[in-house]
Write a structure and sequence with these properties.
By secondary structure, the protein is α/β, with parallel strands linked by helices. Helix content is 64%, strand content 10%. It is elongated.
Amino acid sequence: MKRIFDNIIALFVVVIVLFLVIPLPVQLLDFLLIINIGLSIMILMITMNITEALEFSIFPSLLLITTLFRLGLNVSTTRQILSNGGNAGSVILNFGQLITGGNPVIGFIIFIIIVLVQFIVITKGAERVAEVAARFTLDAMPGKQMAIDADLSSGLIDEQQARIRRSKIQKEADFYGAMDGATKIVKGDAVMSLIMTLVNFVGGVIIGMVMDGGTFSTVLNTYSIATIGDGLVSQLPALMISTATGMIVTRSVSEGSLNNDVIGQFSAQPRAIMATGVILLFLAMIPRTPTVALAMGGGVLLAGGYYISRRMERQAAAETAAAESAAQTEAEQAAAAPSEGDYYKDINNVYSLLAVEPIEMEFGYSLIPMVDENHGGKLINRIVIFRRQYAQDMGFVFPSIRLHDSSALGTNQYVIRVKGEEVARGEILVDYYLALEPPAPLGEIDGIETIEPAYGIPSRWILPENKEMAEIYGYNVIDPMTVMLTHLAETVKKHAYELLTRAETIQLVENLKRSSPELVEETAPSIVSYATLEKILRSLLQEGVPIKDLATILETAADALSQGRDVDMAVEQVRGALSRTITRRFCEDGQLRVVTLDAEMEKAIISSLTRNEQGVYLAMGPELMQQIIAQLSEHLKKFGDLSQTPVILVSQVIRGYFSKMITQFFPNVYVLSFNEIASNVQIQALGNITAEAPARAERRAVGV
């Protein structure tokens, strides 16, 4: 019995198909026709009481089943009408007599009007709405998915909530896609109803006159009533199902049931209701108009609008009184609160002033709308997306950025601070575009000259109407939001190593423990302390090396430290283990273009290494340093036409110390060692820094 109940819908569909073949008794046909009408009413009421379409997600399939059920009954009633002398049961007879009222012509015209209303107005409109909803739902899917990923990355939702929201988006797309096709079924049902009505009428007249030998008037009266009754019994449910179809595909902006929405939104406009009442009363005073009806309608609307208006005023007064009471309570609490001097007498309250934000961004007044989400600001969402992307690329989740305005800044200025200190500053014009100047522009564009804040590129602030012309001239045009976000992103990348704290290091290790518990248990913190691991990770981030492969970093660091290596040498060994990652960052088309040091220069640098109690450091003489800087400046010009970042290739022994010295003069130059380059990469030397003789170096210094 349970198995039959579980498959009741499938059995019902099979029985509906059998209606097309097997004749049904008149009594059973009456019962099924009433069931059909009741089912259509129930579906219409459900669609009017749901708040969103997915609450009735079975509607497309239900639409197909009810249409098939209606057509099956229509075929059965047609069989009874044609084979039983127009007698298809009491339901059809009563509905036919009701609509005809003794005049078959009037009844037939009313029936045609009902069918055309369903076909032209409701069905066609629902079809168009479903088509547009399906297209826009599919177009909006990528944006919705990105919003979910952004909320997940920012911690607003967890993985389970994100999974539920993704599933809902997919179901919504599937639903509207199915509705787009299901509305075609309703359209075909309306066409089929007209055809079957014509068949019933013409076929009945022919059978009645030719086979039964009845008079034309008798046959016409009998079969017209039966035909119109049959058509009405089938079209009433079809009309309600079509209306339900239109209802369910137009629930996109509703916040409650249709009843609540209609009452709430109409009652929110009492002036419009009263104005309508006044207009109707004015029309009632015009001669030869239906004075009584207009006066009654105008009076009802005027009284109803006045009542709603008075109720809204009372509600507003109550809310105002509640707000004043709350404000008075807050004022009393503020008065009762201790003064600032009394508050800071407690030394524990003074400690609250010592908090320092890891990273914060201050804005001038004009830039607030770019940040404020209530005014359409997109900066927060863009930061969330950047945080997610940076975490995927570098393996480090930088802390939340505190955003706030500052009256100390200019209206168009912004400042980026790391641990309370300013590290970057910029100025943007909200209503302009920034055009980055190409090396050889095809034309000159009018604008305010400036410097792009992130990369220091000469640029111009141009008006929006000059954007297309600037792009034609070869300028790279970007909007103010992108300018500010790019500057923030580059600043975060540059100072990411400062944002890595001990707590974040422990969090990274705990996260690794989920996938490699044995490695963590063996190495951290027994061999590699959290403090040492933090130094290693900071050193990697400072030089732009991703720490995503934490398992390799921790394992290599443990091996190096267990062999008695210091932290600096452990960092170099870790970099060697990450050779593929480092190579991928700088390699282009299988080639790596570098500047090298000759053997004599490397020996000179090695001889400059000095060890003290704090460790090893580079104590290089000013002459040797001047040689290196002068030659490197010449060689870096060769990277100007290349898209690759300038790279200096040295031995592993001096790489770390040489990198610290070079970045003081050339922050955008990276120093790599030979063991950090993958074996399948072709190295191309663009220049070689040599150890010059003292006399030659002196002549170079004085310009001889």
